[in-house]
Amino acid sequence: xxxxxxxxxxxxxxxxxxxxxxxxxxxxxxxxEDVVRAIxxxxxxxxxxxxFRLQAYRHWLTMxxxxxxxxxxxxxxxxxIIYYSAPKKKVGPKxxxxxxxxxxxxxxxxxxxxxxxxxxxxxxxxxxxxxxSVATTFKEKLADAGVIFGSFSEAVHNHPELIxxxxxxxxxxxxxxxxxxxxxxxxxxxxCFIPKGVRCPMELxxxxxxxxAKTGQFERTLIVAEESSYVSYLEGCxxxxxxxxxxxxxxxxxxxxxxxxxxxxxxxxxYPGDKNGRGGIYNFVTKRGDCRGHRSKISWTQIETGSAxxxxxxxxxxxxxxxxxxFYSVALTNNYQQADTGTKMIHIGKxxxxxxxxxxxxxxxxxxxxxxxxxxxxxxxxxxxxTQCDSxxxxxxxxxxxxxxxxxxxxxxxxxxxxxxxxxxxDQLFYxxxxxxxxxxxxNMIVNGFCKQVFKELPMEFAVEAxxxxxxxxxxxxx
Amino acid sequence: xxxxxxLHASVDGKSILKGLNLNIKPGEIHAIMxxxxxxxxxxxxxxxxxxxxxxxxxxxxxxxQSLLDMNIDIRAREGLFLAFQYPVEIPxxxxxxxxxxxxxAKRRHREQTEMDAMDFxxxxxxxxxxxxxxxxxxxxxxxxxxxGGEKKRNEVLQMLMLExxxxxxxxxxxxxxxxxxxxxxxxxxxxxxxxxxxxxxxxYQRLLNYIVPDYVHVLxxxxxxxxGNKELALELEESGYVGVGS
Amino acid sequence: MSELNEQNLIAxxxxxxxxxxxxxxxxxxxxxxxxxxxxxxxxxxxxTAVEAWKYTQLRTWHKNKFHQHPKHAxxxxxxxxxxxxxLDEHCQEVIVLDGVLQTKxxxxxxxxxxxxxHALKTEEPLLQSYLGQAVNHDExxxxxxxxxxxxxxxVVIVPENIVVDKPLHILYVSSKNSExxxxxxxxxxxxxxxxxxxxxxxxxxxxxxxxxxNHVTEVILEENASLSHxxxxxxxxxxxxxxxxxxKQNRGSDFCSNAVTISGHFSRHDIxxxxxxxxxxxxxxxxxxxxxxxHVDYHTTIHHDAPHCHSSSVYKGILTDKSSSVFNGxxxxxxxxxxxxxxxxxxxxxxxxxxxxxxxxxxxxxxDDVKCAHGATTGQLDEEALFFLQSRGLALSKARRMxxxxxxxxxxxxxxxxxxxxxxxxxxxxxAYE
Lengths: 479, 246, 434
Fold this sequence. Notes:
The complex is a heterotrimer of chains A (479), B (246) and C (434).
Chain A lengths: L2 H9 L9 E6 L6 H10 L4 H15 L23 E7 L9 H10 L3 H7 L8 H17 L2 E4 H7 L1 H7 L10 H9 L3 E6 L9 H7 L9 E6 L4 E7 L10 E2 L2 E6 L4 E8 L13 E10 L5 E8 L4 E4 L2 E4 L5 E10 L4 E10 L5 E11 L3 E10 L7 E11 L4 E10 L5 E10 L2 H9 L4 H17 L4 H14 L6
Helix pairs in contact in A: 2-3, 3-9, 7-8, 11-12, 12-13
Chain B lengths: L1 E10 L2 E11 L4 E5 L6 H9 L4 E10 L2 E2 L5 H6 L2 E4 L6 E5 H15 L7 H14 L10 E2 L5 H15 L3 E5 L7 H13 L6 E6 L12 E6 L2 E6 L1 H10 L7
Parallel strand pairs in B: 3-10, 3-11, 6-9, 9-10
Antiparallel strand pairs in B: 1-2, 1-4, 4-5, 7-8, 11-12
Chain C lengths: L2 H19 L5 H17 L15 H5 L14 H5 L9 E6 L2 E2 L4 E2 L4 E4 H7 L1 H7 L10 H9 L4 E5 L9 E7 L7 E10 L4 E10 L6 E10 L4 E9 L5 E10 L4 E10 L2 E10 L5 E10 L4 E10 L5 E10 L4 E10 L6 E11 L5 E10 L4 E10 L3 H9 L4 H17 L5 H15 L2
Parallel strand pairs in C: 1-6, 5-7, 6-8, 7-9, 8-10, 9-11, 10-12, 11-13, 12-14, 13-15, 14-16, 15-17, 16-18, 17-19, 18-20
Antiparallel strand pairs in C: 1-2, 3-4, 4-5
Helix pairs in contact in C: 1-2, 2-7, 8-9, 9-10
């Protein structure tokens, strides 16, 4: 494909998202110990949590913003940020006819049901008749199973002992700059607890989507799966998400005890900025799972198509013997998007196994970087890892980088890593075109084929949506 | 159907086709034979519009329109089909969804409605059976892990599904044992009709025992140097290309 | 390491550097040295916080204060060197003793071989125009240090249109006089248009003393020039070695690098090539075989700055005892370097419980029409293969040996020179089966 063709494709505009006005009760911008205390007070938090926040804040003051990632952005002024704002009342459109038709077109392309379209577009909640009852049904079903699932703030009040026991045990506040910041000022998030022996009766994705609430800038998620339990959780959705906050610094902690399994899937489609690289979300996320128990398993699947800058490395600490860690990732950067993403697999227990499959797609001026660590400690007898990371290039202005770190301190380990980078194949394109497909469909088909290994790890309904999402995100790559 | 006049084409600045003329009428089967490097595959690539093949002179008329003015995909939708000498693998894309996308692209072009999934499934299964292709191959990624013979049969399967009016078979016989060759030939023959034409490019006469051509042309050094009926192929088999046309 | 310590060390080097600035060297060289030293002091001595030194601690290196000028040593007896010699009718050999070229200046028809000081007298314009073309002081602190301090070195000049039929064997010998000394060696190899040469740089140590070698071999390959380069590290249990080969490749040139660590204590090797013009080709192969507390760090860097260049690289490690290794292979494809093809592999074999292998194959790609791949594995000998060989009657030790040999042979078989190949295989066999 010629560069001109690629350029034309790229020039097609991104379907702009929709911004809701939120009339909110907010603090003044800026961060200080008083602000941290005030956040905690506002939320009426127990003493231990305030202590946690303050320790995190004091530690954060001693830290420097990391610069090692292959991302470039003007430095963030942390004193320009408003650290607390409670949404009071949404003033949204009354029905879909008031919603930006471009956005609706995107929803339609993604095949999102009408009711969900209304939710996502911010149509006033009362207008969405069904959702409340649907959500209630789900809630009852979960409660019957003994699953605790709700907002983080709720859990702080209803189950403080669980929060105290697990918060910060996977990602300590000292972990990194953004994790420290999040620990000090996190707004809200989700808490999920699956008791011993319970298989969560549904994909928490479904529930989550119906309840697609504003998650805020400093989201905190904690999922604990007790012995022999199972949960599948989906965060985000395929619809484009707008947010007035440029910086997002979330922390997600997963704990899996003996024989427990957690499957965590993410579809991230925050606003990526315009085609000249103006605007867009900075997404600096710390996600880590702790396979604390024997034979436990944590699996990350992520589809990253949004944000101006993505900085995230969902990781697994394979502490328990026979524990399993997985990371499946598709990261797409178009226009001026930058992504530095990958994973860390830390093998500590015996007979631990990890699998990494990373697919990076760079288009336009996109910068895509895989950064991954496979570390086998001395104690990790018979550790196994297989890593595959492939990059696909669309257009001569984009970039793709691969930085794997392999550190092995135990001779019984068996580690394999493969990576390949190439441009989209002219032969494949020609083959598709000769069968009558147009350039855009052909590219989408080849790109989706490239991502197949990862898509098949997603819950079924999302795999289909993810395919469509790729098409929408690549829109404009060919004219 | 297809009328080529004084076609000159080059690859990387090197002139390959040097004044080729060919006229194919509806319902006819033409075979093009010739030694290696004569320009056989270049002709197939020029007709299908592949990048890197530059037409420097001459014209090609396809069903009353100028073929050279059409993009690759438009040519395909207008009914020009190339059975590849080296079919391409597309990892992660199932054979089935690939064909479905191709079918629907063509149907949309003709302002027909998209094919119903059930109808499509039963049609493709019938055709696969005809070519003795294992049904399981429909669900595998396009040509990935297929044997040489399977790839060629898969090309013919696509041809049967898309029902092109002009099929170009580029060395479809290469790498086929005699059983597979007969299956492929039967597939092609089942498509023969008054309104369809075929251009069979081959190095050996063998295929032409099963797909019997109306005309045989000898291509050498970018030109057709001799034309005749199917007997010409046998002659070539015996005496080789040396001396033909001189 | 405390800051005071580092400052001490830098001050120590600064005085040596000052001494050179008052010498009779030409001004351009003094200026070049001054700039190099400035870069060195600005960046400081790297800690593990510096990405390129992440897995290599300079802590024990710091403990030693190496002096610059070893006492003049007697040339060792021939029998002492025989062990390391590859000298036969097929090879030309020169000896560098404690940093000083011993052989009479060799100027056969094929090429010129001389020491740095001599070259400064006879080939000053050449030196001035070539020195520093292929090195990057910012990225390599020890190159800066070497450029600031080195008075010794070998200069090899191969004129245009010459195919040198005998490989050149440069044998760097450390005598017992080198105890607690440092040798900064600044080598320069220029291969003229359409010329071809094979050069073996071979580092050996006769008396197992503590010393530090810091060498830079800068190579300029002119159009269609070809160099097969070998670096053999065969040093003692107390040696410190930091060295780099830095290559600039012009149009159509071919660089084949073969690095083998047979023995040593602490070493860091940089092999960096930049293909600045089209159609160049490079092959970087290496094998490190580590024992005891040995630490080996190989950093390879391949810059594809121009279109239609090819590179391939295979590095293999065999680790025993408490040794540790680093392989960091970086391939950078610059914007516009279309039609690049690059392949890179690193495989590590862990033969003891306490060894440690770190591997980091990197790709940085800024253009689209490329085919780049890398692979890495770390593990033990294949259990099934071992079982199979035993079932065919081989003793376990023999079966292991056979598999280790096969593992190493993948690298040896890539070496164009059978002399070096045989030499390495012989030593490896000796070391492997003690």
